[in-house]
């Protein structure tokens, strides 16, 4: 049957990409349908119940700055929060939260169910309605035809999914869920480059069978950090400890002896796995000289005994899993509640996408999440938000948008994927961003919220809070610059021995904060009242302390922007550019960069080749 209502946007898949996509589209004002296998699994964490970490928290906070759901749900579901790299500079600091998977899922579902313009429908999408080179809608498993102006596909690990435990394998989207076979077959008929990747997960363990007394407890930070710019510690449920134990020589022997029944080492799995989240069998093989590996023992929630042993992801046969788990200190009596497994799935070459995440060959069809070759909830959520916004913008005939590399980690990720493609699951790191000092997790709102508001993504509550923070910061910066401390006064005395060199002239408070030995808390109250808004105070301190570096990076960004604004026409005939090497001609013709800056990031590109392109472009005008 034809569904009677038409939609602006249909999002297929209710995982991390799909939920952010549906919410972003609906926030923008588009009439949106979220079509997913199972309403009970909306926002389900397929693997580790944790959000954030190095590079990833930057993405979560950018989603948050654009009024997405991930950080808000983390604050409502987080049971252990830590700031990683706390002693390093602010560019690489990262917030990480262990989540109660039930609370997290409930928070996502509640946000979805309360979103105006958004409807949810439970059923598998089996086919796309494509007219010429334009998508027009989706057909479900039972033949319901939904019409829409744009479609966002976020099918995660489900397309052609095959689950492996040892040499046994069966079709599945993730443990307990069906795969998407019909849709995968249909997509293979479209002019899209498709390949296989794999990922894996560890066995889960019953906490009642574990001896925590021989493990190192790892409490969260105090005061408890928050993930969202809108978050409060009072949003958090009860906080609990994680624990640390280690594999040992015996564990490694057990694994080596089981490799002849490993799907990875007998060639049964062909897809490439995540380099930075390797299975334990991979680690033993790659780091053969190491006699132990860390295992983080993480609770899956407050109302379950299940534990996630982070670090021993495996697809070895179950008997080997049992033996290896029980060889680990504290796990001698462990009961496994769910076996570990690996999953192979279809992904699409992201070089076939535009920066808006629209496919180049099918108009109105957008891809986001794991199907673009990435791994991780945060990477998926960030792409979902971008694809959801652009799908809505296309349907509503508004301007499309994507952040540049100097505006957000979302921009870095999408540009990396589109420019270079990926042959292994792509995850975010701070080292992928060239403008790290500008792209901090703490200032994601200052970078993106105003833009999000202009696009219609940011609601009134967040906007009001953001404006208040920005005003508090500006006023405080002025106050600090205009408040002076003179030598040998009571205020100077208060700084006492904390000063490396005594004050020999008058200083304003801003200059004092710039001194390495002092911080905002030491100085701001010397004269007048420090501000109460902790986030605003943190920004004031970082902006003052790193002002020299930040200014330098801004100059570099200005230079890059000039190249970014030089667009390369889609029909650019690179064969006509004399002087270009055949290799570069081929790469440019295949990758079709949208701007001169993107061309400059293609591997092997030289400044001389960029000049040739510029000269040719000028001649064409
Ligand atoms: P998913 O979260 O997979 O969501 C896909 C959604 O689409 C699901 O709701 C599904 O039901 C729905 N769907 C699919 N097909 C259809 C259809 N035809 N019709 C309707 N609905 C459909 N990430 C890491 O960072 N590190 C890891 O170590 C790691 N290990 C993993 C291990 C396993 C076994 C699995 C399954 C995943 C692992 N992940 C890991 C990946 C992480 O789960 C994903 O990166 C993340 O969930 C991707 O989000 P997504 O929204 O793209 O897809």
Automatic annotation (TrEMBL):
Signal peptide: none annotated. Residues 544-615 form the tRNA uridine 5-carboxymethylaminomethyl modification enzyme C-terminal subdomain domain. InterPro entries: GIDA_C_N, MnmG, MnmG-rel, MnmG-rel_CS, MnmG_C, MnmG_C_subdom, MnmG_N. The keyword Isomerase does not apply. It is found in: Cytoplasm. NAD(+) binds at residues 273-287. Its cofactor is FAD. Its main location: cytoplasm. FAD binds at residues 13-18. Keywords: Cytoplasm, FAD, Flavoprotein, NAD, tRNA processing. It comes from the Bacteria. PROSITE patterns: GIDA_1 (PS01280). NAD-binding protein involved in the addition of a carboxymethylaminomethyl (cmnm) group at the wobble position (U34) of certain tRNAs, forming tRNA-cmnm(5)s(2)U34. Belongs to the MnmG family. Homodimer. Heterotetramer of two MnmE and two MnmG subunits. This is tRNA uridine 5-carboxymethylaminomethyl modification enzyme MnmG. It comes from Marinobacterium weihaiense. The gene is mnmG.
């Amino acid at each position: 049957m034809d569904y009677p209502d038409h939609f602006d946007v249909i999002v297929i898949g209710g995982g991390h990409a799909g939920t952010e996509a549906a919410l972003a589209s609906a926030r923008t004002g588009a009439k949106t349908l979220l079509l997913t296998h199972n309403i009970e699994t909306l926002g389900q964490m397929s693997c580790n119940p944790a959000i954030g970490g190095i590079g990833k928290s930057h993405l979560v906070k950018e989603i948050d700055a654009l009024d997405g759901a991930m950080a808000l749900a983390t604050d409502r579901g987080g049971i252990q929060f830590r700031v990683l790299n706390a002693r390093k500079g602010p560019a690489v600091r990262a917030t990480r939260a262990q989540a109660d998977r039930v609370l997290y899922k409930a928070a996502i579902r509640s946000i979805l169910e309360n979103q105006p313009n958004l409807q949810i429908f439970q059923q598998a999408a089996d086919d796309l309605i494509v007219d010429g080179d334009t998508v027009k809608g989706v057909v479900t498993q039972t033949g319901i035809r939904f019409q829409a102006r744009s479609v966002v596909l976020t099918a995660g690990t489900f397309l052609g999914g095959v689950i492996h435990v040892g040499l046994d394998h069966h079709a599945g989207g993730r443990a307990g869920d069906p795969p998407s076979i019909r849709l995968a077959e249909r997509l293979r008929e479209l002019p899209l480059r498709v390949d296989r990747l794999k990922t894996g997960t560890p066995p889960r363990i019953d906490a009642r069978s574990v001896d925590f007394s021989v493990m190192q407890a790892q409490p969260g930070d105090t005061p408890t950090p928050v993930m969202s710019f809108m978050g409060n510690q009072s949003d958090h449920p009860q906080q609990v400890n994680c624990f640390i134990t280690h594999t040992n020589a015996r564990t490694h022997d057990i694994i080596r002896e089981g490799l002849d029944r490993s799907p990875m080492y007998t060639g049964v799995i062909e897809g490439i796995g995540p380099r930075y989240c390797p299975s334990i069998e991979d680690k033993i093989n790659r780091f053969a000289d190491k006699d132990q590996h860390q295992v983080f023992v993480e609770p899956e929630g407050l109302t379950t005994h299940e534990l996630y042993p982070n670090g021993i992801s495996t697809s070895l046969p179950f008997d080997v899993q049992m033996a290896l788990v029980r060889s680990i200190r504290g796990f001698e009596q462990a009961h496994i509640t769910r076996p570990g497994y690996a999953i192979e799935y279809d992904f699409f070459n992201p070089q076939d996408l535009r920066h808006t995440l629209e496919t180049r060959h099918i108009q109105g069809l957008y891809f986001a999440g794991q199907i673009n070759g990435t791994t991780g909830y945060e990477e998926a959520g960030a792409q979902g938000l971008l694809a959801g916004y652009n799908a809505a913008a296309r349907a509503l005939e508004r301007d499309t948008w994507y952040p540049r590399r100097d505006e957000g980690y979302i921009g870095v990720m999408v540009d990396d994927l589109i420019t270079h493609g990926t042959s292994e699951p792509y995850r975010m790191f701070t080292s992928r961003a060239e403008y790290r000092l500008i792209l901090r997790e703490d200032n994601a709102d200052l970078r993106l919220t105003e833009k999000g508001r202009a696009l219609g993504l940011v609601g009134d509550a967040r906007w009001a809070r953001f404006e208040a923070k920005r005003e508090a910061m500006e006023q405080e910066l002025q106050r600090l610059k205009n408040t002076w401390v003179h030598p040998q006064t009571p205020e100077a005395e208060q700084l006492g021995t904390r000063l490396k060199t005594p004050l020999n002239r008058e200083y304003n408070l801003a200059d004092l904060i710039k001194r390495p030995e002092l911080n905002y808390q030491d100085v701001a109250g010397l004269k007048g009242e420090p501000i109460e808004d902790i986030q605003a105070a943190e920004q004031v301190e970082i902006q003052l302390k790193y002002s020299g570096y930040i200014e330098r990076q801004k100059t570099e960004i200005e230079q890059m922007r000039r190249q970014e604004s030089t667009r390369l026409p889609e029909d650019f005939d690179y064969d006509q550019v004399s002087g270009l090497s055949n290799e570069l001609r081929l790469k440019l013709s295949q990758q079709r960069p949208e701007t001169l800056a993107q061309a400059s990031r293609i591997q092997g590109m030289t400044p001389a080749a960029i000049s040739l392109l510029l000269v040719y472009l000028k001649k064409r005008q």
